[in-house]
């Protein structure tokens, strides 16, 4: 009796006479009651199934977050360049100063800074900055976009990326950014910095300099040193992402979904960046000398 009353009452409330497709058996004070399943209730009440719309929303949210992440990384990359460019300038000047057959102008990094500021002012330490700023967002987009795509295709069923696959994903990301973004940026940057040390500088700005390089050397003029740049960026990102992902996994322990705090992530990034610099500086020297020709 209780069974029939429960079922009839449900259909009277919903306004439907269709029988439930599945019922769950429960006991209430020693009597058996037939209760309709959640799927049945949703169909009777005319509610849409939750799966498709929810999955679509999650996919859209994930894509939106991925785009925002790339934009934020591009902006932070631009801030990083503004802060660290003087060291990049000094490094490039010292690499060019040690070319065979040329008389050395600088005794070391400090002397390079003093001479540059004396001859060109503080602005001289930022010669070529615009090149890297224009390329910071596309470089970040290619680097992190390629790594996330490769990581998505390589991660195991348990959601863990094996150590050797971390290296390969980082290597692939570095090769992609070297071809699509870094080589033109680095070539133009080196030429701009070298132009300042010449007796008669003739680049009046970013667009004038790029147009002159393309006019004199063609498109190949902005792709000088492509092979060493691929080796440099590939090894750079392989080391960087390997160290970064390994340290984050170590911090999470058994909980792979744990969020790593921002401060800890920054510390891991500093360690990973230092490791990548130590690992590929010799290739960077070769690249710089090829790009100035």
Structure commentary:
By secondary structure, the protein is mainly alpha-helical. It has nine helices and two strands. A two-stranded antiparallel sheet has the order 1-2.
Descriptors:
293 residues, mainly alpha, two-stranded antiparallel sheet, 2 strands, 4% strand, disordered N terminus, MCP_transmembrane, Citrate transport protein, transmembrane helix, transport
Order of helical and strand elements: HEEHHHHHHHH
Q: What percent strand?
A: under 5%
Gross morphology is: elongated
Structural class: mainly alpha
Helix content: over 70%
Total helical elements: 9
SS elements, strand count: 2
Q: Average pLDDT value?
A: 76
Keywords: Membrane, Mitochondrion, Repeat, Transmembrane, Transmembrane helix, Transport
GO biological process, one term: mitochondrial citrate transmembrane transport
GO molecular function, one term: citrate secondary active transmembrane transporter activity
Biased composition (Polar residues): 1-20
Short description:
The protein has 293 residues and is mainly alpha-helical.
Spell out the blueprint of helices and strands.
Blueprint: H1 2-14, E1 23-28, E2 31-36, H2 38-45, H3 50-97, H4 109-120, H5 129-154, H6 163-197, H7 206-217, H8 226-252, H9 262-291
Antiparallel strand pairs: 1-2
């Amino acid at each position: 009796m209780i069974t029939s009353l429960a079922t009839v009452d449900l259909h009277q409330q919903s306004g439907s006479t269709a029988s439930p497709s599945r019922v769950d058996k429960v006991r209430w004070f020693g009597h058996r009651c037939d209760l309709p399943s959640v799927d049945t209730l949703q169909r009777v009440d005319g509610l849409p199934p939750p799966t498709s719309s929810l999955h679509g929303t999650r996919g859209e949210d994930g894509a939106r977050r991925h785009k925002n992440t790339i934009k934020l990384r591009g902006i932070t990359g631009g801030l990083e360049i503004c802060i660290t460019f003087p060291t990049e300038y000094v490094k490039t000047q010292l690499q060019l100063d040690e070319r065979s057959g040329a008389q050395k102008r600088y005794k070391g990094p400090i002397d390079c800074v003093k001479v540059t500021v004396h001859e060109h002012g503080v602005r001289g330490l930022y010669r070529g900055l615009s090149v890297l700023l224009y390329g910071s967002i596309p470089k970040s987009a290619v680097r992190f976009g390629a790594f996330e795509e490769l990581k998505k295709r390589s991660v195991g069923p348990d959601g863990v990326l094996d150590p050797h696959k971390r290296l390969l994903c980082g290597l692939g990301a570095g090769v992609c950014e070297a071809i699509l973004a870094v080589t033109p940026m680095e070539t133009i940057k080196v030429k701009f910095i070298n132009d300042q040390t010449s007796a008669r500088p003739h680049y009046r700005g970013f667009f004038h300099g790029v147009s002159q390089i393309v006019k004199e050397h063609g498109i190949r003029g902005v792709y000088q040193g492509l092979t060493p740049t691929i080796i440099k960026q590939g090894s750079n990102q392989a080391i960087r992402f390997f160290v970064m992902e390994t340290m984050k996994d170590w911090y999470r322990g058994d909980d792979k979904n744990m969020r790593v705090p921002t401060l800890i992530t920054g510390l891991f990034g500093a360690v990973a960046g230092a490791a990548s610099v130590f690992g590929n500086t010799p290739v960077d020297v070769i690249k710089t000398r090829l790009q100035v020709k």
